[in-house]
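Here is the promised in-class demo. Please do not try to memorize the tokens; focus on the logic of going from shape to residues.
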């Protein structure tokens, strides 16, 4: 059987990216990408927000010069994280970015 886990997204940054570092000093960049509602579908929530993380120095350099509202292209893979807190079981899905770039606008 063949499996493919690839995601390509283009949207706007909901907030300025946050850079954190692992214990070994590797940069991990976290940001939220806001996507417009699907055309032709009535979705009560409106736009969709996707959590994205990028690992390494490329993401760190990119994050320093970008601002909230910037148009961004992301290519990567889906991930799912599960944990338990005081409210019960929780699940989060997001994208591990392999490539992130700014989209030029007119």
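The designed amino acids, position by position:
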């Amino acid at each position: 059987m063949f499996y493919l886990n690839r995601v390509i997204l283009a949207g706007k940054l909901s907030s300025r990216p946050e850079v954190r570092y692992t214990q070994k000093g590797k940069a991990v960049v976290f940001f939220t990408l806001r996507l417009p509602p699907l055309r032709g579908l009535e979705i009560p929530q409106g736009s969709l927000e996707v959590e994205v993380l990028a690992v390494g120095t490329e993401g760190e350099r990119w994050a320093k010069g970008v601002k909230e509202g910037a148009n961004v292209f992301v290519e990567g893979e889906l991930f799912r994280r599960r944990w338990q807190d005081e409210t019960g079981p929780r699940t989060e899905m997001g994208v591990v970015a392999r490539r992130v770039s700014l989209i030029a606008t007119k």
